[in-house]
Design brief:
0% of the residues are buried. The chain is an alpha+beta fold. It has a two-stranded antiparallel sheet. The protein has two helices and two strands; from the N terminus they run H-E-E-H.
């Protein structure tokens, strides 16, 4: 019984060996070439931009206030406006200052 089993195993192994080593190879999907674009290597600068949303904070907490007390009559700038030196940002009602001087 063991000799028959040995003969069957050898016969099966020999059959697998012959079928896997045949010279006729069929075209498979891996044998097909894929077209690619080729370019010359060149040196150039690449700018990297990173866009993010968040908030920033200052190390110190600056206090922005008027030099004199008064009620705001008008605001001459909007959020995100660029301002120039000595530009009037707001107009104050100074009646309380005039009363104090008298």
């Amino acid at each position: 019984m063991s000799q028959i089993r040995l003969v069957l195993i050898l016969l099966f192994s020999f059959t697998l060996l012959l079928t896997s080593c045949s010279k006729d190879k069929k075209a498979t999907a891996t044998d097909q070439t894929t077209p690619v674009k080729v370019a010359q290597v060149k040196y150039q600068e690449i700018s990297i931009r990173y866009k993010s949303t968040g908030s920033i904070s200052s190390v110190t907490n600056p206090v922005i206030k008027a030099q004199v007390p008064g009620k705001v009559l008008s605001v001459n700038v909007n959020v995100d406006d660029k301002i120039k030196p000595n530009q009037i940002l707001a107009v104050l009602r100074l009646e309380s200052l005039k009363l104090n001087k008298v």
